Amino acid sequence: MSEDSGARWINCRAPEIVPSRERSMKPLVDLERACFGFRRRTILDDVSLTVERGESVAVVGPSGSGKSTLAAVVATLLRLQSGELRIDGQDVLALRSARLAAFRRATVGVIFQHAELVPTMTALENVALPALLDGADRATAEGRARRLLDEVQLSETDTPAGDLSGGEAQRVGIARALVNAPALVVADEPTASLDGPTKAVVADLLYSRLEAHGAGLLIVSHDVAVASRADRVLRLEGGRLTAQLAEVH
Ligand SMILES: Nc1ncnc2c1ncn2[C@@H]1O[C@H](COP(=O)(O)OP(=O)(O)OP(=O)(O)O)[C@@H](O)[C@H]1O
């Protein structure tokens, strides 16, 4: 999803950088009274959400209810039309394109349904890329990438990403999301395109690696087994976000 697609920019304030000590006392994600629509259709209607540091929060809901839109808003890929969003204490709506991109690279890892790797680059190059873009030198970026690929149990690091199976590609996606040691990972249907046994392996790796790295997680998933492993499960329906009280479906 591209930044600003279909959205109108309303909040226009001067950038404010919050000191890191002050940031660490605030929720990792603090979304308040968020509204977002595509053209005339309201998708998020006064939605508030917090994710604490190291916490995992799953969002479930009917198809088309706006789960991916919410994930893209929290991943700072789409801008809210009204409301507030602070991530790691930073008012992200106050940041414009270049600074927002730099903030996102350092703070938010994103995992997509189809991994979205560069097919001609190897697994190792795909994982190292965000670190290189964030200013790491090649040896450092590749060292981090190798360690993370080892963590997700991918030994064939020189295979072009286009030749990987769906499960392998998603393991690379998890490693890539973690390469800049983000405080937050946003995962949009990370297991939806995988078969049963592979889903379980990828979900295990996702939750265990995030816990090991102390990253918070916002995960959108149709999969009961995957969503119910989160610390909290929320339901998005009719533009509103509520606690999921009954069984996830
Ligand atoms: N770029 C866009 N322009 C216009 N409408 C869009 C755009 N992206 C999504 N939508 C619409 O917004 C609504 C919410 O889409 P979204 O993908 O967020 O829902 P979802 O809950 O993730 O759905 P699913 O579970 O089927 O993936 C849908 O009706 C979709 O068609």
Automatic annotation (TrEMBL):
Signal peptide start-end: none
Record organism: Cellulomonas uda
Alphabetized GO MF terms: ATP binding; ATP hydrolysis activity; transmembrane transporter activity
Any one cellular-component term (Gene Ontology): plasma membrane
Domain called ABC transporter: residue spans: 26-248
CDD domains reported for this sequence: ABC_MJ0796_LolCDE_FtsE (cd03255)
Name assigned to this protein: ABC transporter
InterPro entries cross-referenced by the UniProt entry: AAA+_ATPase (IPR003593), ABC_transporter-like_ATP-bd (IPR003439), ABC_transporter-like_CS (IPR017871), ABC_transpr_LolD-like (IPR015854), MacB-like_ATP-bd (IPR017911), P-loop_NTPase (IPR027417)
Keyword field: ATP-binding, Nucleotide-binding, Transport
Transport in keyword set: yes
Classification lineage: Bacteria, Bacillati, Actinomycetota, Actinomycetes, Micrococcales
Gene3D superfamilies recorded: P-loop containing nucleotide triphosphate hydrolases
Domain of life: Bacteria
Listed Pfam families: ABC_tran
